[in-house]
Automatic annotation (TrEMBL), chains A, B:
Residues 10-157 form the L-erythro-3,5-diaminohexanoate dehydrogenase N-terminal domain. This is L-erythro-3,5-diaminohexanoate dehydrogenase. Gene3D superfamilies: Medium-chain alcohol dehydrogenases, catalytic domain. It comes from Proteiniclasticum sediminis. It holds the Pfam family KDD_N. InterPro entries: KDD_N, NAD(P)-bd_dom_sf.
Amino acid sequence: MEKGCRFGTHRVLEPQGVLPQAAVKIDNTMTIRANEILVDVTALNIDSASFRQLEEEAGHDMEKVKAKILAIVSQRGKMQNPVTGSGGMLMGKVAKIGEDLKGKIDLQEGDALATLVSLSLTPLKIEEIKGIKPEIDRVEVKAQAILFESGLYAKLPADLPENLVLAALDVAGAPAQTAKLVKPGDRVLILGAGGKSGMMCCYEAMKRVGPTGWVVAADRGEASRDLLLKNGFCHAYFAEDATKPVAVLEKALEANHQEEYDIAINVVNVQNTEMSTILPVKDKGIVYFFSMATSFTKAALGAEGVGKDVTMVIGNGYTKGHAEITLQELRESPKLREIFERLYL
Amino acid sequence: MEKGCRFGTHRVLEPQGVLPQAAVKIDNTMTIRANEILVDVTALNIDSASFRQLEEEAGHDMEKVKAKILAIVSQRGKMQNPVTGSGGMLMGKVAKIGEDLKGKIDLQEGDALATLVSLSLTPLKIEEIKGIKPEIDRVEVKAQAILFESGLYAKLPADLPENLVLAALDVAGAPAQTAKLVKPGDRVLILGAGGKSGMMCCYEAMKRVGPTGWVVAADRGEASRDLLLKNGFCHAYFAEDATKPVAVLEKALEANHQEEYDIAINVVNVQNTEMSTILPVKDKGIVYFFSMATSFTKAALGAEGVGKDVTMVIGNGYTKGHAEITLQELRESPKLREIFERLYL
């Protein structure tokens, strides 16, 4: 077996020189290289922006959606919506593991898995579309796909329902990074704490700061106050609009005995919340931006403008073990699991 | 003396609740609070985007530019170009230090300084514009300004020419962060190494990695190869277009004995160079983005797409002592100083 590029560039057909995600056409031949994994695919979870676009273009005719998906995959070698550019993820069973990877990764042939890299870069060949469930953007298929050596996946655990696992993996990056970042005794501020990602970050921060730390949760309104405080997901809570830095700073300091924070984590899904995250943090502290609404220049120039010597980190959706760390939260905390099952399934 | 907010929010007139930079009008009364500094201003260095806009609007009539600057400052209380939003910096002498700061900072009344925070947030009152030097975007004035407690400045040293100091302070953030980030033995990749900022980062990286480290410089063309290698500012050099991640990865590994890097520093001033910075770095390594052309989402989603467990940092223009660290480079290295005087004055 020949070895391929760990990022899959050997399958890029056009244009040359780019990574598979940026390619318009990739090679979906289902013969694996020594460092690839072949997956028998049972379902595609289409990215919701992509699914909505397909549905609208097809006038909500599911047969037309099916035909469009088949056309895209046959043309591009991957399920990347040409309008939205986005993909989704897939579920299936490991059919074959390349000889270079066998025994070196925590997968065995036959394992059930979900991919954590986008369909927009995953070689895919569909034999048959068996059904579409538009209410959950799911396409049931008989298909095969290739995972590159750099490709991320999560084994689907036997002890948790599949839908719960998928809902949690959707935001796996932020809580896992929180777990690695937060140290005992830290004072941590979490902006956007009421959302799915924010709640998991709060839970993880509480666990990591231990008895000497202090976790303050904030969100726009009062809706999440009781949920977070009563379940012990934070020590204190305040409600404020995260686009108002001066007001956030005042309330954040008040909630932390007038002291600055070691770490602030931003999971707010609106623009212009950079300064609210930067101001409450002490010099040499860490500002973690997980929101995709973050502006690089607003953060960089903003911190300089107020003379804040803080380390600002771009939230990486991947960190080693992120899926395991996140699923473990649901096993550990019946309260968190109950909230998840109630709100996100 | 009453104390003000360290970020200067007590001087925001409208709209309420924002920081001075975002305000359309701030209070430029030249009576200082206990934690403010009064500066007798001799010159404004207008941001080049702002100066160009003013010049064009005025049809290159310098009397009209003068009148426009006076109008902006009288209306806004600060020299923030309403079209570009940008400011610049100022030079002057310390006239008075508020009682809370006196003896606690490294400034004395009479010291010459340059501000390192933008004019777009600095209270300013102009008595007279004495002259304009359009070739260096400089406006000579009789004026006064206020520095907030959080405001950054650099004392102008007696042993270096003012123009050299200003050229270096312009990019002070990146080399100072490099100095703090790079450790002995590190393998460091610098993309955009041929520019002013890149060259200073190279110099600083070479100093910090010591005899066991390895610094690789890269830029688009061959123009900087000799300059960087002959002056000992890097161990190896390669030329590649930073928007081509696969090509950059191959050349970067080749230049580093086929190993991944501990740290990559991006000071490339074009878009779409995120993946070229991320791919050559090893897991748990650091990716430092200093380019204002960096896209937050491209970095975040890109690292996840290739399963890279790297820490990606937003380049903060400020870190403690950044001006001193940067000026020290010019004192230490006659070669660097000679290049600076030749290329950037």
